[in-house]
Amino acid sequence: MPISKPDSALLILGHGSTENPDSSHPSWEHADKIAATGQFGSVHCAFWKEEPSFRQIWPMIEEDEVYIVPNFISEGYFTREVLPRELEIEGHNCERKGKLIHYCDPVGIHSKMTDLLIKRAKEILDPGVELSETTLIIVGHGTNLNKKSVEAIKDQVAAIRESGEPFGNVIDAYMEEAPFIADWKTLTDSPTVIVVPFFIADALHSYQDIPVLLGIESEPTEAASQRDIFRQNPYTIMGRTLYYSSAIGTDPSLAEVIVDQVAYFDEHYRS
Amino acid sequence: MTLGDALENLLPPDSTLRLGELQLSRSPEGSFRAVHSRNRDSMEMLEKLESLAELREMAKFDANNEYRPLKTAPTLKCGWFTECDEPAEFIKRLDAIYPGLFATWVAYDAGDLDPVSLRTTLDRQTGMYRFAGTINDQMANEIMRDVCSPGCIRKIAWPIDDQCAVSRIKPHKRFIPPVCTEACTFAVSKARELVKKAYDKANAPEQS
Asked: Cα separation of A255 and A30, whole Å?
């Protein structure tokens, strides 16, 4: 959605990582892409585990109005507790040291994510594979600490099923809670399985941990940016054909979703 | 005053300034240049980096291709330079190398950014870091000695707790002080590690 806010700053928040160099990469890519459009006075990123940190960001922003979009996959512990606390903001609209702050919803709950998941699943399939003979697995982290992260994925699975796309089946699975992604061979019965990670980056979990759980790697590999080849789809495992995509958050269209969250904010939350 | 104005004041035409491991310079005509201080005397063979993405990628790894999650670690690579005419663009390029370091100094020096004590930072933590605030002063000193001092070019401006006095870092004509106004994620992680270690030691089963 076209938007023009030359007097406002856009601040994209990410998790970042002290271990994996690729974690913050999508946020920076989306930020650069949005900055090039000139839609905002300035575009910034801040991270929980990298720099600039949430605590370091405010002196860098000169505009008096700031839209904050969490580049997170779900609502929950981070978006409701950690980010507002570290940024010293409250609610959707607040004033902080003379700046008007608008705290938008995280990208992962935007309705466009469903179309992106479908697009990503289809684009990694080889020509000629019938969708009706595939099972699409949307895989997330899963944690008992945050039920919202699982809800976000269940919502996407329901939306894809209702979309009319002819996948044989669409299911959810998780790293750390049932149904476990490590059990994909028994969770599915189709000849072809497509796994799309509902993560922001091709980092520790989606690039290094889940491939081991799927059985396409015997142990965690180097980070994606340190390898010459990203993936070699498809994988044949026990007579089944498996396609594993990159994380949904790396899709270039996420930049549009970030801007759309600002537009959605103006329509629904702006006071 | 904008950050661009502040930069132009600190770095007038035909002058140089240090910022961490960087040598900043401004030509008599007013254009800005940043180079690793070890390369300041010879620009030959240096790679020109112009985009923010290129500068971020350069700053992401050290000379041994090890990931640098802390951008103010004293391990910035040599062999490159960047230059441009606009102060606002130059600040973006500095931020790609040292995120927020320049703006933090400007805000701190203007009295707009108060340092946050280590205990305030740790007491605020939740989740897996919620016990970090139980460190004792010895552990706090251990964090500064083992994590901050060898691992980061920033100068600590925060006290251990709000009762401690800490001297303000003063401006300098030859360099921009790389100031740390609040303990970072590495210090918080170290605090958690020290608390956990002490807890495990206190609760270890007695050896018979």
From this structure: 5
